[in-house]
Amino acid sequence: MIKENLNIPGETAEDIINRRTEITQWKKYLSKENLRYIDSLFAKSPTDYNKMTPTEMYVFLNRHFKQYVCLNRSDDDPSLSLDDYIATKAIRQNKELYGLETTEDQISLINKDVEGMPRKSHKRRLSNIIEKTKTNNVKNCEEINWYSKMELDYQLNVPCRNILILKDRNDKWMKEITNLLEKKNCFIVVGLSHLMYKCGLISQLKELGYTITPIEVK
């Protein structure tokens, strides 16, 4: 099974963040009220949010919004992300797991993608996502609703707009994926956006002569 990355003990996002020595001055990015909200949100978390970057905080809050507002997930819900859930199935069947990149690679890319963003932009988007979460604003759950219906439009003829996060990574991954496909049967688990557009894995595999056959979800 091929994943974007593997959850290696000592090299998880939590481990990487907690090892840092640099502290983010959140007072420069959050209002007092929102800082209290973040403090309560991370009260029981093993991750030291003071060592997160504003970009990492936004990514975390955006995911939190989708899980707890859009999907109405409870705090005691033990469910995993889809790729991690599939990985547990693979492990139970003694399947070999392969990661296309490290967690540290992913964190670096997340930050590099908005490198140079002005502080006021960080402040604005952090404030917006916190407000949406605190008010349970489900009007911004279109993406989740679209995905849950599984009526996916892969837009295979549309060029990729994000070179760093999508095209460059897909091109790099394809070298690893094709090498593994030549040697054994593989089950590939990546985020939906990596399957979409002209630079997506589906389009690139088709160009190499692979046959892509959809399987109906039961």
Describe this structure in words.
The chain is mostly helical and 218 residues long. The chain has a domain at 9-79 and 102-141. Helices cover 48% and strands 3% of the residues. It has nine helices and three strands, in the order E-H-H-H-H-E-H-H-H-H-E-H. It has helices spanning 13-18, 32-41, 54-70, 82-92, 103-113, 119-134, 142-148, 163-181, 201-207; strands at 2-3, 98-99, 188-189. The chain has a three-stranded parallel beta sheet with strand order 2-1-3, with helices on one face. Helix 3 (54-70) packs parallel to helix 6 (119-134). The longest helix has 19 residues, at 163-181. It is globular, with a radius of gyration of 19 Å. The relative contact order is 0.16.
Task: Give the helices and strands, then pairings.
Elements: E1 2-3, H1 13-18, H2 32-41, H3 54-70, H4 82-92, E2 98-99, H5 103-113, H6 119-134, H7 142-148, H8 163-181, E3 188-189, H9 201-207
Parallel strand pairs: 1-2, 1-3
Helix pairs in contact: 3-6
Task: Name its key features.
48% helix, single chain, 3 strands, 218 residues, 3-stranded parallel β-sheet, 3% strand
* Number of E-type strands: 3
How many helices? The count is 9
Uncertain regions spanning at least 5 consecutive residues? none
Describe the largest sheet.
3 strands, parallel
Cross-sheet strand order for the largest sheet: 2-1-3
Q: Rg from C-alpha positions?
A: 19 Å
Mean pLDDT: 93
Shape descriptor reads globular
Short description:
With 218 residues, the protein is mainly alpha-helical. The protein has helices spanning 13-18, 32-41, 54-70, 82-92, 103-113, 119-134, 142-148, 163-181, 201-207; strands spanning 2-3, 98-99, 188-189.
